[in-house]
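User: tokens in, sequence out, please.
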């Protein structure tokens, strides 16, 4: 049995029943779909260096990378998933301002065969805690969809420290995982 829905002109339209074979000819078969799943390789934790309770400036880390080869696919859609765990331990620097703040920038970078590097998306992680002492961890996950031409590209997730308030004993981004799912309608 098919479904009934309304079109843009508010007319009732009966949806084709998939068991209704009399209206389904061989030349109208749906195209074969191709799926690829690629896991990241060589994940690395980010362990930020501290000196006298201060996070060292200008630190960045490549957390994970995944290679996606869509060269034999037509009109590929790539979905990138990233997950990690952010952990920090610190305390307020001044008694009159009981706040600990962590500000991290996550960048998804695409590098294709031509060697060009392109930041395709950024995400900010900002956590402020109004406490004198903080020991905190939470997951950080993001998803990005990319429609690129058939090519071979590597995606990299990079994290860098932006701004910090308080004194820190530890700041880490652990268990990074980057993977890609690719969908294509048909072969070339």
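Assistant: Sequence out:
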């Amino acid at each position: 049995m098919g479904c009934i829905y309304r079109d843009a002109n508010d007319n009732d339209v009966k949806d084709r029943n998939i068991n209704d074979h009399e209206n389904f000819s061989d030349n109208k078969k749906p195209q074969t779909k191709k799926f690829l799943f690629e896991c990241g390789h060589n994940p690395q934790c980010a362990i930020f260096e501290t000196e006298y309770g201060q996070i060292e400036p200008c630190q960045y880390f490549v957390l994970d990378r995944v290679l996606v080869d869509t060269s034999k696919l037509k009109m590929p859609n790539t979905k990138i998933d990233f997950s990690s765990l952010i952990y920090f331990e610190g305390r307020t620097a001044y008694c009159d301002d009981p706040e600990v703040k962590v500000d991290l920038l996550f960048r998804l970078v695409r590098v294709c065969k031509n060697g060009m590097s392109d930041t395709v998306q950024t995400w900010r992680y900002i956590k402020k805690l109004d406490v004198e002492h903080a020991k905190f961890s939470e997951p950080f996950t993001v998803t990005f969809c990319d429609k690129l031409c058939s090519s071979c590209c590597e995606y990299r997730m990079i994290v860098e420290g932006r701004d910090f308030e308080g004194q820190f004993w530890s700041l880490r981004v652990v268990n990074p995982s980057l993977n890609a799912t690719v969908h294509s309608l048909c072969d070339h």
